[in-house]
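To: structure subgroup
Subject: Chain for Friday's discussion

All,

I'm putting the inputs and outputs inline so they're searchable in the archive.
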Amino acid sequence: MKRNLIYIILTFLLTFYSKAQTSQDAFNLSTSGIFGSARYTSMGGAFSSLGGDLSSISDNPAGAAVFLFSEMGISFETNFNNSISNGDNRNLPVKGYFSDLNQFGVIFSLKNSEDGPFNRLNFGFNIQKVQEFKNNINSISTRNIGLDQFFLNNAQGVPLDDLMTRDNETIDELYDFLGNNYGYSTQQAFLGFNGYIIDPVSNEENNINYVSAAKYNTLDHDFYIDRAGDHKKYTFTVATQYENSFYLGFNINSHQVYYHEISDLYESNYSFDSNINLIQFNNDVLTQGSGFSAQLGIIAKIKNNFRLGFNYQSPTWLNLTEESMQFIITDHLNSPQENLIRDVVAPQILNISKYKLSTPGKTSISGSFIIESKGLISAEFSSKDYGNINFITSQNAYLRSLNQELASNYKSASMYRFGGELRQKQLSYRVGYYYEESSMVNADNSHSGVTFGIGFDFKNGSILSLAIKNSNINLINSLSASGINDNFSANQKQTSVMASYNFKL
């Protein structure tokens, strides 16, 4: 098949993306957890009707108007992860830990000295983690379907001529050419063909049909994922108190995403007469970018000891850049009489693609009961429709198909948060619980946590708070982007220890 200029231009316009984004990528970037100050975390994040905490303004901007004095605070956390894949007794826990500065904020409080209904005007700024991606998972399993199906799925319909190097053309050059002009699927066909995993039905240049070189009944998979990065939100807040009954607030949020995932899959246990003996498939993907969202919130005081809160966060619009590299190693036979040959196809090419993603908005209602100076209890209900995750595109057919997949596989999920605080002189004791139900139609990716904490008021305008959060997270993962019905579940247990120091300015 000729690589003429017109075809190249048309293909570039239609398949701009050199790496296939997945619905799982989009979901990971749309999730959020309970992160923030030690007081906020130790009460399960149930702060939307309370305010008066720097992390609370990231949920409900009206909470910024509760501050009577200017204040600054900073929070530090250490996390201990313990993850294990389900379904096979060969799987063992993978442990890890890391530390991070996870929150910083400041509030400037201005009291209105003039007569009028607006008693106070406060301005706030807060940096807070929305989600933590750091996690390691190892899945050992036996399946009756292999990576050959992934490469076949991408190769069918690709002319053989496109997968073969020209005179003086290197593997790197052809891989780069295919990514820039034909897209991700053709690159995977190229890897499968040059790794001897798939064979053409005929050796004609215009051949577009392929068969597997592998034979097996069941296969052993050893899959390792190493994830790092986080999603942070930078919140700029303006809030006011109306008379003595309402707090009103508005947030402008800037989002920063850094998500790095390295996956390595070993596949073995082929039939004795298979031309393929082993496959190692490695993918290294870095996604980073920025985004924007906005929030509106209100807190109403019902008498002196009961408060109701409502807040809405708009969808988050993200501009993302993805950089990816991959390689494949195969042990194979050219014929039954030959020894095993190891082939390494490792293009030193960085695939770069840019895309836009819209993550769903969230609506929350909350209530709290304040027991004079002795303590408080609070509760919050929120809902987010993960089926509304959307790749923003009008021309790319693949991304449109992903949007249909997201709408079919994901649904609305509710989150429940509860918290309480007991005060005894300078000490405060806190407890909380949160639960978000599964957002997948046919799988369980719910998560929950129990939280505890303590605070000490130094009576000089400063407070030291400590918190412990025990989380239980159900994870759904995939071995490949397409071609294999290969989802597997894992469970992550995370213990987080947080310390916050707040002081009045």
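Points worth raising on Friday:
Confidence is low (pLDDT under 50) at residues 1-19.
The first strand starts at residue 71 and ends at 85.

D.
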